[in-house]
Amino acid sequence: MGSAAAQIPTSFGHELRACRRCRLVKTYDQFRESGCENCPFFNMDADHERVVDCTTPNFTGDSKLRIHIYISTVRG
Ligand SMILES: [Zn+2]
């Protein structure tokens, strides 16, 4: 407890998810309908359970990490 959770809308079907491989962020519906443009081999549009397997709703931590690396690179 005590950690500040990111405020992300989680209504079913419009949940934001990030591709586990390339970190592309779209809604669940968008992944289900067209898959990940960068990772077509996941076949998320063919099997909707693949969307759950290949994407994650927990991408905020990774985003912060990437931002930190970016800033470090620019300043270094
Ligand atoms: Zn992807």
UniProtKB/TrEMBL annotation:
Keywords: Elongation factor, Nucleus, Protein biosynthesis, Transcription
Keyword hit for Ribonucleoprotein: no
Cited Gene3D superfamilies: 3.30.40.210
InterPro entries reported for this sequence: RPABC4/Spt4 (IPR029040), Spt4 (IPR009287), Spt4/RpoE2_Znf (IPR022800), Spt4_sf (IPR038510)
Gene Ontology MF terms: RNA polymerase II complex binding; translation elongation factor activity; zinc ion binding
Domain Spt4/RpoE2 zinc finger: 16-75
Subcellular location per the Swiss-Prot or TrEMBL entry: Nucleus
Major subcellular site: nucleus
Swiss-Prot/TrEMBL GO biological process terms: regulation of DNA-templated transcription; transcription elongation-coupled chromatin remodeling
Nucleus in keyword set: yes
Gene Ontology CC, one term: DSIF complex
Family as reported in the entry's similarity comment: Belongs to the SPT4 family.
Protein's UniProt name: Transcription elongation factor SPT4 2
Organism encoding this protein: Cinnamomum micranthum f. kanehirae
Taxonomic placement: Eukaryota, Viridiplantae, Streptophyta, Embryophyta, Tracheophyta
